[in-house]
Amino acid sequence: MAEIPAIPPRATREPVTEVHQIGNEIKVIIELPGAKDDMIQLEITGSTLVIDARDADHHYHTTASLPLVDAGSMQRSFKNGILEVTFGNLPAGTTVPGTN
Q1: What is the pLDDT of residue 91?
Q2: CB crowding 35-46: b at 16 or more within 10 Å, else e
Q3: Which positions ≥6 away from 84 have C-beta within 8 Å?
Q4: What's phi and psi for 56, nearest 5 deg?
């Protein structure tokens, strides 16, 4: 039986990312196995959440398209390799600068 080659530890990987609307919140869930909370950087650019996590052994990069959210309401939690980022929804008809 042939061995499956391992992914080099320094390879950039795109993690599994999900976006869910739950009531009046948007929740983004990202799998970052082996990552530590202090290595995670989040940035909102227009209607996109950019997720980067990097240390000597891991490098993750991905994006998530967001509906209209209140960027100032962003909260995050990280436990057991799972990052959850939560936003409040903006009311319909609201415009956000930089998203047009």
Answers
A1: 72
A2: beeebbeeebee
A3: 27, 28, 29, 30, 76, 77, 78
A4: -65, -30
Percent of the chain topping pLDDT 70:
80
Q: Which CATH class is domain 12-89?
A: mainly beta
Region 61-75: mean pLDDT is 94
Dist CA 76 CA 27 (whole Å) = 10
pLDDT reading at 30 higher than 90: yes
Q: What is the pTM of this model?
A: 0.79
Domains of the chain: which residue ranges?
12-89
Of residues 99 and 23, more confidence is placed in: 23
